[in-house]
Amino acid sequence: MTVNIELKPTTEPLSDAERAAILADPKFGQYFTDHMVTVKYTEGRGWHSAELRPYGPIELDPATSVLHYGQEVFEGLKAYRQADGSVACFRPEANAERMARSSVRMAMPELPTDLFIAAIDALVAQDAAWVPDDPEKSLYLRPFMFSTEIGLGVNRPSAEYLFMLIASPAGSYFSGVGKPVTAWLSTDYVRASPGGTGEAKCGGNYAASFLAQAQAVAEGCDQVCWLDAIERKYIEEMGSNNVFFVYGSGADARLFTPELSGSLLPGITRDSLLCAADDLGIAAEEGRISVEQLRADAASGAITEAFGSGTAAVVTPIGGFRSPDSAIVIGDGQPGEVTARVRAHLLAVQHGELDDRHGWLHTIIPAPTAAAR
Ligand code: COI
Predict the structure, then answer these.
(1) How far is the CA of 293 from the centre of ligand 1 (A)?
(2) What is the 3-class SS of the chain, one letter each residue?
(3) pTM, whole model, 2 decimals?
């Protein structure tokens, strides 16, 4: 069944001058575009009432299920101004498929991929003026879905849901583009255990991470780095992104990232980098790495660089890791050459400066014609 998105745009968009002031320094997740998309789901009826409407608050009954039991999933992807002036977003099908997998894990209905993409097309086309021109900036898209049935029983999942899509112009996620971050190896808390919700992108995983993140900040670090829940020794992922290590340098450089153990988030940037490494002629491998191994390989110089990868984080250099009893410095603690190369390559693909050999770009607004330029 095709669900059409009814367009109900605002009559009061932000002025060009106000929008330009925001786009000059958007930071991350602080400003939102003029519109949003909402789609309802009702058991027995399916997806319906799809609308693009002015961005704004929604009203919820205090007994709405999500407020009590947190049945919620979300995604993150970006739209980029392309070198030829068109606008495209990066791998939206991959986000739609991951949201569907997250939904299954959270006993929620799956939003069809074509409706997910139609929502993105409608919002980005409507709010195209919010897609920054600067290659270090983009329009971050946040699709999410939550249970809306009213009632406090937990004998079955909600029978009603709301899917929403909002957009936010984005600069660097961490303060200072390209500045290395320090990660806190969390030994007091775990993020996810086998059979849990670690593979799902659900709000609850992040709710449970804030205490460890606060501890990381209190210890002078930028971000928490999670270890596996069983042995508490293998590196899994960071608070908001996956992690990569670089072994060797120059032509001998090799990327290594923790394997998808069942409790890690299967990052789309992570997957893209594993493919792009091949395009760059850099070997890449997935496996397990313990803190002990990291410490030994960083001390011997075998590990030369580390970086985080994610939609928001892009490729962020990691200068070092700390735990209650140790500090691990990666290389000289400064961003490395391989990290810079991988980051530049990814951004060039995302901005249409390189051949889209994997078919990752989804064009939403075509390039202006010569007459329109
Ligand atoms: C993203 O990179 O899109 C994320 O979802 C990270 C977010 C939690 C800031």
Answers:
(1) 28
(2) CCCCCEECCCCCCCCHHHHHHHHHCCCCCCCCCCEEEEEEEECCCEEEEEEEEECCCCCCCCCEHHHHHCCEEECCEEEEECCCCCEEEECHHHHHHHHHHHHHHCCCCCCCHHHHHHHHHHHHHHCHHHCCCCCCCEEEEEEEEEECCECCCCCCCCCEEEEEEEEEEECCCCCCCCCCEEEEECCCCCCCCCCCCCCCCEHHHHHCCHHHHHHHHHCCCCEEEEECCCCCCEEEEECCCEEEEEECCHHHCEEEEECCCCCCCCCHHHHHHHHHHHHCCCEEEEECCEHHHHHHHHHHCCEEEEEEEECCCEEEEEEEEEECCEEEECCCCCCCHHHHHHHHHHHHHHCCCCCCCCCCEEEEECCCCCCCC
(3) 0.96
